[in-house]
Amino acid sequence: MTKAKTEGALKSRRSFLGKIAAAGAAATAAFAAPKVHAQSGPISFRFQSTWPAKDIFHEYANDFAKKINDMTGGDLRIEVLPAGAVVPAFGLLDAVSSGTLDGGHGVLVYHYGKQNALALWGSGPAFGMDAQQLMAWHKYGGGRELLTKLYASINANVQSYPYGPMWTQPLGWFKKPVQKADDMKGLKFRTVGLSIDVFTAMGVAVNALPGGEIVPAMDRGLLDAAEFNNMTSDRILGFADVSKVCMLQSYHQNAEQFEIMFNKTKYDALPAKLKAIIDNGVEAASQDLVWKSIDRYSQDYVELQTKDKVRFYRTPNSVLQAQLKAYDEAAAKKGEGNALFKEIEASQKKFAERVVKWDFDNNVRREMAYNHYFAKPAPKRG
User: Fold this and answer.
1) Among 359, 341, 382, CA closest to 153
2) What CATH code is carried by the domain that includes residue 79?
3) pLDDT tens-digit series, residues 10-55
4) Which of 34, 67, 191, 287 is the most buried (most CB within 10 A)?
5) Judging by beta carbons within 10 Å of its beta carbon (0-12, 13-18, 19+), is residue 37 exposed, middle or buried?
6) What's the CA gap between 104 and 106, in Å, rounded?
7) Helix or strand or coil: residue 60?
8) Total count of domains within the chain
9) For residue 310, is it within any domain?
10) How far, in Å, CA of 99 to CA of 123, rounded?
11) Helices in the chain by DSSP H: which ranges?
């Protein structure tokens, strides 16, 4: 080989090796450097609650939104509007499913008219479970999968998060104490969900109204009595202005929870990181809601008695027993021809048999300790 040819070959070889080295360095840099996505700005979601702006329930909705907004560092911004701002309270599911709203805050039983089985997430005795245990069934006992199946059966384009287990709701507000089941016959009474059928079977004339409409209806004589939820909501909404008798304890909504909904199409389009924040943010908001409710409800229980002069009574056992009988009859009718209703009932019942037995056997009753330290009499029986 001539000298010129040798020098040309070496030059070509050095060029080739140089290109390989450059390509390798570029690949290494690309692997090591984080991927940068173009950011067009924060994602904004418009929610609506099913509650009046002054109700503590709307406060819960805002608490959830704030947690998500804070944890995403502003990448997702949820704004919550009160009931009626875009659609009526009972129109929330349709509005979220269609994309009119990006999401909402309410309760599953408000969609009862779409599929009766939704009432099993809140209306009734839940086979002895409390709301925490019902939430445990939802997450670990198959409830989440059944709810997904249920929403698919009615073509609801939503991502649903039941959360925020509620305390046992009062039987309601009356003109005089309820002493027996017959005392309720003929009363014009407000309730929702499967409780409509339960109270109807007990001889009550039921009118389902959203929370913000109840007290005005009682004030105008359109209702004789009503139930809503808790001491704080009831006080804020003005129940003590139209009634001075509240009956505590009931099976009609013994184990209810709230629901956070997203339009599923918009939810599915979110980055995985934001979905993970929502998943965990829901649970954080759920527990915070429980703690806040303990503090606020107990305060307003005192205020209703001392400032508003409300008299509280425990619902008699005979009325509770009548509720259980009426519930069984109503649930049996709703299950006729509704395979999903029966499937959900069977799943809850199986879970409840194990969990409630464990609860009763394992956890000490608290009355003895409370009486030991405070010796305050329990509310009178009706």
Assistant:
1) 341
2) 3.40.190.170
3) 444 445 444 444 444 443 333 333 333 344 679 999 999 999 999 9
4) 191
5) exposed
6) 7
7) helix
8) 1
9) no
10) 28
11) 3-32, 56-71, 92-98, 131-140, 143-153, 195-201, 211-219, 231-237, 239-242, 264-268, 272-306, 317-335, 339-362, 367-373
